[in-house]
Write a structure and sequence with these properties.
homodimer, 276 residues, alpha/beta, five-stranded mixed sheet, two-stranded antiparallel sheet, 34% helix, globular
Chain lengths: 276, 276
């Protein structure tokens, strides 16, 4: 079987991934540094036309070692599909490590030490490249992008900027009790719909764009499978699929929860003969 | 922090990892195809002087996406250390996928379809390269190597061949009840000790060899940590460590067991502040 795969980190990214900040910069109190940094997803060969700036990796990302692979990533992939971008994108996060606990992300939103390494990635991806637009997911990422833009005003001025709500805004907003999941989903869709025309106007698509507005509820096709070519060689196909496959255990206490990720082949991918 | 990482699959290996056999060649009844193929560990840049031919990947390997990372790999790494090889090695397995169930490996030991792809790797790694010796771990690997050697008799004749007991022979032999763990460990050590002089004589070491014989029981230093440079960029340090960190759940039935791997940060690596 032939399957695309992510070739990893060519120069100059090889030097970046060999020299990343650890717990001296990302405190263990606020970040799950123990799971290692997760750097990117998408093209590092100069073919990217759009950059997505996300927030922080979660459980699926800690196993697949690429960012925006779970639910948030599949919603983002669907947004790219609407603007005709199938492969010419690259994604990096505001934080290399998963945020731990309440407020950890906000406490480090303007952290200059964290920005220093992040800006090396953004410089490499955005200064003198073919990227024409930046999709900024959520408020922490907006702050991160602004911090970079201050250091590279000319490069930033050439980019179309689309700061939008984070793909998991419906879940996070409704969890706080201030709105319902349905209302927050409708809000997210309205917000993303407003960004579509600008993105279509400022991005040369891979295939003709089809910016049908979001409906207010998630429809089939709004979430798009992660392309095989975004994950490392040999990654199981279900790592790209829409079904969730990684979770932290509940009910065993906070110590075990932080220490553990359970990886489960989704039911649809359990194609082996019946067992016992 | 600076940390080495495995750069992945340069040409001609990029074509090999993009075109691997799936369940048409490896039946789901006998192999855990659902976890994806796991190809190698070590140098693919032509610097390898020794090739290790292992058997099949297990739980740790299914997460780290490199072979011989768990207990067996750390014992093999220790053997390489004794012959002065710290980095100039490459490892591939007899099977791309983890063997499932009793007898699955034996049933496919002489499988020509499986050999076809495996031999492409062995051709690339052994014909016209700087590899001078092959360490063959266990009987299935010995069969696999013989199948390759028949197709490349001249290249095989130039190689020093060290067929030795598999690193987890003590556990597998004693599990069958025919011997004790202690006796099987002593047997393994005697077997490996017999191979040391030939390997020292036929391998140009990275550092001076120190082939102190194994004692009959595992001593500190017999197991060696997996080098950072063997795992993908950003892999957590504890993926290289001696403490086990991946397991299949027991007590939940064979279906869940096959579908699940639980990844747990070892106690020594839980350096975060105390949690609730």
């Amino acid at each position: 079987m032939a399957r695309d795969f992510c070739p990893g980190y060519p120069a100059p990214f090889d030097a970046l991934v060999a020299d990343y900040p650890g717990e001296d910069v990302y405190p263990l109190k606020d970040f799950r540094v123990e799971w290692g940094p997760i750097f990117h997803r998408g093209r590092l060969d100069g073919s990217a036309k759009v950059l997505l700036l996300g927030q922080d990796p979660a459980t699926h990302e800690s196993i697949s070692r690429r960012i925006l692979v779970g639910e948030a990533g599949q919603r983002a992939q669907g947004l790219l599909a609407k603007i005709g971008i199938e492969s010419s994108y690259v994604m990096v996060n505001t934080f290399l490590y998963s945020v731990f606990g309440q407020g950890g992300g906000n406490r480090h939103a303007k952290d200059e030490d964290i920005a220093k390494y992040r800006n090396r990635w953004l410089d490499t991806l955005l200064v003198g490249t073919d990227v024409t637009a930046v999709i900024v997911l959520g408020s922490l990422s907006k702050t991160a992008f602004s911090m970079w833009a201050e250091t590279q005003p000319e490069a930033a001025a050439r980019l179309h900027q689309a700061p939008i709500k984070h793909p998991t805004f419906p879940e996070s907003a409704s969890a706080s009790g201030s709105t319902t999941l349905a209302q927050a989903t409708a809000d997210l869709h309205q917000n993303w719909n407003e960004a579509l025309p600008g993105l279509v106007a400022h991005v040369t698509p891979d295939v003709p764009a089809n910016p049908t507005p979001y409906s207010g509820t998630w429809l089939p096709g709004d979430l798009v499978r992660i392309p095989d070519g975004d994950l490392p060689a040999g990654s199981p196909g279900w790592w790209c699929d829409l079904d969730a496959w990684a979770q932290r255990p509940s009910g065993l206490g906070p110590q075990i929860k932080r220490a553990t990720i359970t990886v489960t082949v989704p039911t649809a991918a359990r194609t082996w003969p019946p067992l016992g």
